[in-house]
Amino acid sequence: RFDVGGDVCFGPVRRIGAHVELQWRDQGRFRRFYRSSTWLYETYGWLEFENAGTLKIGQVWRRFGLDTEGTFWGHAPYYNGQTFDPDLMASWEATWGDERFAVDTFVQLYYGEDGINGSVTGGDAESSKIYDEGFGLGLRAVPTWTSDRTSFALGVSGFAQEIEADGTVKDDVSYGAALDATFQWCGLKVFGAWYRLWGTVNEAHYITGGPTDRKDVATAGVGWTLGALTPRASYSYGTYADPDGWESIWVVGFDLNVTSWLILTLEYVNQVGDGGALDGTIEEGLQLVLNWNV
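Now predict its structure.
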């Protein structure tokens, strides 16, 4: 990750800079539709305005719904391409309020896909051979109430985006809405999120095997940080229509901060689904992860 920035005096602009985040995987491509095992996750320039937020232009993380549920394995919104999804866009981001009540706001104008997405093949247009993401608009607002030991955040998101086909099928429009809530108290964290998505974005969804055009996805979880240890559990569920299918994912485990730069994660995963492409257990077992930051 590389960041550079500095103060300027140019009308309402007070700071200017750039951000680059490079990711890689030492055991081949992260997803089959990635071009290589090394990829740019975010690459953008930014302008910070006086009392008016920040404008980012380039490859920027798309903000729709709850950003993460805290697991390493992931959840149904992630596998359907709704979280950790950078795209080509202009993104205006600002926070209004004070330490007791603040609202985070995002206005994002999409102008193309970048071929990078955490979804499995079939979950999103970026893994499609006949569909591409076009122009679109995304909005998100997160009011947060904070007291001495407690906080509550309520997120509302929406988007609409052109889906461009290669001519063998018709173009479509993808649009969606999401609600999420997060409560924190003395190390305890409880969250939930719901997503409704319309529009065909892939010719072969990874569960249904066909051009599914409606998705209802939800996730919920709890975790409690006790010193260096954070035990947690989460559940997510997806139902898909035209053609139909469903999946559910349980992830139960813990994170242990071994040092300031090393985190040990142990998770039990149970992911099952039923549809035209899959029927039965997708994954069941334990996974051990060492995550270090240098």
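The longest strand covers residues 131-146.
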